Automatic annotation (TrEMBL):
Catalytic activity: a ubiquinone + NADH + 5 H(+)(in) = a ubiquinol + NAD(+) + 4 H(+)(out)
Lineage: Eukaryota, Metazoa, Chordata, Craniata, Vertebrata
UniProt membrane topology term: Multi-pass membrane protein
Protein purpose: Core subunit of the mitochondrial membrane respiratory chain NADH dehydrogenase (Complex I) which catalyzes electron transfer from NADH through the respiratory chain, using ubiquinone as an electron acceptor. Part of the enzyme membrane arm which is embedded in the lipid bilayer and involved in proton translocation.
Protein name as annotated: NADH-ubiquinone oxidoreductase chain 4L
Length: 98
């Protein structure tokens, strides 16, 4: 495994571990998701550059568009949660009370 592949896979794994183990605030969960998407974007962009074909060149931009949609939806949920519950702590959220 090259150092570049190791750095992107370790960044993705660290984001996944942060999402799995440090679930106290919704903002920290959103930041972990954005870190995972950023590492996926950079890895996919370098993979497309490595193959030098035009069919792979649109995949990073499509992933970036979905990442922007995910970020805007997450921030909208964060604002709505902070307005209704007064905090962004994930332990205060209960789907049965909605």
């Amino acid at each position: 495994m090259t150092p570049v592949h190791f750095s992107f896979s370790s960044a993705f794994i660290l984001g996944l571990m942060g999402l799995a183990f440090h679930r106290t605030h919704l903002l920290s969960a959103l930041l972990c998701l954005e870190g995972m998407m950023l590492s996926l974007f950079i890895a996919l962009a370098l993979w497309a550059l490595q193959f030098e074909t035009t069919s792979f060149s649109t995949a990073p931009m499509l992933l970036l568009a979905f990442s922007a949609c995910e970020a805007s939806t997450g921030l909208a949920l964060l604002v709505a949660t902070a307005r209704t519950h007064g905090t962004d702590r994930l332990q205060n959220l209960n789907l049965l009370q909605c």
